[in-house]
Amino acid sequence: MQNTEKTMEKIVALCKNRGFIFAGSEIYGGLANTWDYGPLGARLKNNVKDAWRRRFIQERRNSYEVDADILMNPRVWEASGHVASFADPLLDCKECKMRFRADNLIDEFDPEAHADGMTKEEMFAYIKAHSIPCPHCGKHNFTDIREFNLMFQTYRGVTNDAKSVIYLRPENAQGEYVNYLNVQRTMRAKLPFSIGQIGKAFRNEITPGNFTFRTIEFEQMEFQTFCKPGDDLEIYEYFKEYGKKFFEDLGLPAENLRFHDHEKLAHYAKAACDIEFLFPTLGWGEINGTHDRTDFDLSRHQEYSGQKMDYLDPFTGERYIPYIVESTYGLDRTVLALLCQAYDEEVVDEAKNDTRVVLRLHPSVAPIKVAVLPLSKKLSDRALELRDDLAREFMVDFDETGSIGKRYRRQDEVGTPFCVTVDFDTVGDADKAGDNCVTVRERDSMEQVRLPISQLRDYLREKLAF
Length: 466
Ligand SMILES: [Zn+2]
Prior knowledge:
- With 466 residues, this protein is an alpha+beta fold.
- The chain has helices spanning 8-17, 39-58, 75-79, 82-85, 102-109, 120-129, 173-177, 180-186, 232-249, 296-305, 331-342, 380-391, 404-413, 424-427, 453-464, and strands at residues 21-23, 35-37, 63-65, 87-92, 99-101, 146-149, 153-155, 165-167, 193-202, 217-227, 257-261, 271-279, 283-292, 311-312, 319-320, 323-330, 343-349, 354-359, 370-374, 396-398, 418-422, 437-442, 448-452.
- A hairpin with a 4-residue loop joins β17 and β18 (354-359).
- α2 crosses α11 and α5 (102-109) packs across α6.
- The structure holds zinc ion.
- Residues 93, 95-96, 98, 134, 136-137, 139 line the site of zinc ion (ZN).
């Protein structure tokens, strides 16, 4: 029997071999912690975005999407606190010159130590007291801990002087906050209302990445709810559950999800919680963060920009700066979690040692919705017609090479929920008219039904809904 255990190594190999995710700049030897999405990965990612948009923008009342620029006025990052304090605590091994994050050293030494609750000084004292060895050379001889800002800097214009420094945004949130007044005014929005955004952010991380779990360029799906002070904690609790439900709807089972409440809070937060997913090999990892950010952000933008950020409550006549509850979804991490959850090696026939790899993705996020397979190349013209007809509504693959069994298995491996076979009965011949029916085979159960082509679109539409 082959080993059917699910490992990250197998998932990475499948991603690479079947066009989901490739190493970034691969022909040049890659660039650490960067990855490129291939044809199937890009579709999977877009489908997750569509699902998120549906749940967070389309279905919710008083919810608006923006698409803000990555480059922002550098004053934004002074107001947000990122210029002063968005830093990792780093130290170097004096023996082998390798650089590490102090909190990671401690967490790997003792997961119960909770380095996220320690100051820089406490971390240094802990590492010393426990003589934590260098993970690379095994010696214990570290420098002091230094703060290393995680923002990528670049320069605007042709001169490299300090005046022209700008940053690649390290989070999307500020794009929503600086547009709060614009959205409120133009949408005539009343509290509570939400602004969502999907977009890229950049962090100069030194930590090893674990595939796409930690990358220097990544995409976030962010949702900021502006509310009356005092309503914030209820909204915060609501979005913790709403986020968990979203993941469950996408196919992540409750037993592989958990809340992780933060003990140490960021300077802006009153309450903070992550949703973690149980990744194979890696263990529990954060895929969402929900934060009660109070009026910190808008107050700071009022202070730094000079623009009034307060809201005139039409019901009470009061003026106040709204509180913000943020719920952020890592898109790349969500995609990775879905791939990990979906990956399965199913023993089809133990006696024949027959195992199939199947990606049990929720049909709504599957990159290819339906594959059209002619039973013989003589049927390819009719099958291509059907392919073109279905492609007006769905992502369709067409495959005429190899046995039908092999073609099914190829589609199983990339998560295609339905295969449609065109056979000689579909088309008919000189003696017998075609029945205009096709065989639809379902990925997970491998069950087959015969359907008139005229009913096929309705059938698929219903099964593919999110
Ligand atoms: Zn060392």
